[in-house]
Design brief:
Shape: globular
Distance between the termini: 32 Å
Radius of gyration: 18 Å
Helix content: 25-40%
Order of helices and strands: EEHEHEHEHEHEHEEHHE
Low-confidence stretches: none
Number of strands: 10
Number of helices: 8
Strand order of the largest sheet: 1-2-10-7-8-9
Length: 308
């Protein structure tokens, strides 16, 4: 296949068995989303949102695209904007890793860093995200741009329901017993959960949250600061459908660090903290007694570790 642009190679990532890092009971399989051109699972939502906006006229030729990002959505948008011919402006909390801003600028995006409200370097809170979103809205108005608004864009959910979920089913060769994914906007978790539950209503779908910031589990946010960038902002996403979540699993910073190191050293997979948290949570689900001893749990390796 000869792709005409980078946007055409978004999707169809490999499905990897993590048999070196996890030896049972059961088995963990993971989608290698870090191999997408923007380096993360957010490429799928970025592509879907922009193509839908171009189709219905919200995004006109050459119109600026504006969005708040923790880095991954911005990179996905930068890839899509380069292919489609749109300038991109992103606002990002100054607490996100500098490597993310550097990558975005390398892809041609204009990056506007927003001072943190109550977070700290490497630990971005919901208030920090709100401040960056408000700045993005203002820029979109000033420049007559298209505001992506990823948290409220239903196209992101549909992208995973129609691509990521069906890919897992096709690559594995049938339904899986469990699905585990960290929740930021919730698009990956919900979209894939819809597809997997359609194939097997008994698939246990577990949302991953930072250990001390678990509003999806119905718990008060004890500490909004954590290392799992891009997820766990201490609030329930606008499009959240609780009927798709069978349980919530909490992962600490230390656990994410440990699994991130193990994934790199034992699997040769250098991924980010949310990806490591996903694998950690998948192991917790498999050892919880909720599933059979030969169960298979699918998850997603959200992004590359090169952005940290």
């Amino acid at each position: 296949m000869l792709a005409a642009s980078a946007i055409e190679i978004i999707g169809s990532t490999p499905l990897i068995a993590l048999d070196r890092i996890y030896t049972g009971p059961g088995r963990i399989i993971a989608k290698a989303e870090f191999l997408l051109p923007g380096g993360s699972v957010k490429d799928r939502a970025a592509k879907a949102i922009l193509l839908a906006a171009r189709e219905d006229g919200r995004l006109k030729p050459g119109m600026p695209v504006v969005e708040m990002t923790s880095g991954n959505m911005g990179a996905g948008l930068a890839v899509a904007c380069a292919a489609l011919g749109h300038p991109l402006v992103v606002t990002m909390s100054a607490g996100n890793s500098p490597a993310r801003a550097k990558m975005l600028e390398g892809l041609g995006a204009e990056v506007v860093l927003i001072a943190q409200v109550d977070g700290s370097p490497g630990q971005v809170t919901g208030s920090d995200v709100d401040a960056a979103a408000q700045a993005a809205c203002a820029i979109a108005r000033e420049r007559d741009g298209f505001y992506v608004d990823q948290f409220n864009a239903a196209e992101g959910i549909a992208a995973h329901e129609t691509t990521t979920g069906p890919e897992i089913l096709a690559q594995f060769g049938g339904p899986v017993d469990g699905w585990v994914a960290a929740v930021g906007t919730g698009c990956t978790f919900m979209g894939v959960a819809k597809a997997l539950k359609r194939a097997n209503p008994g698939t246990v779908c577990a949302a991953v949250e930072p250990l001390n910031a678990r509003p999806l589990a119905g718990e008060p946010v004890a500490n909004a600061r954590h290392k799992l960038q891009g997820i766990g902002y201490g609030t329930v996403p606008p499009h959240w459908d609780p009927s798709l979540m069978d349980m919530s699993l909490g992962v600490s910073d230390d656990e994410a660090e440990e699994w991130r190191r193990a994934l790199a050293h034992r699997e040769g997979l250098y991924v980010g903290y949310s990806a490591a948290a996903n694998v950690c949570a998948a192991a917790k689900l498999l050892t919880s007694g909720r599933l059979t001893a030969d169960a298979v749990v699918a998850t997603v390796l959200c992004d590359t570790g090169l952005k940290y």
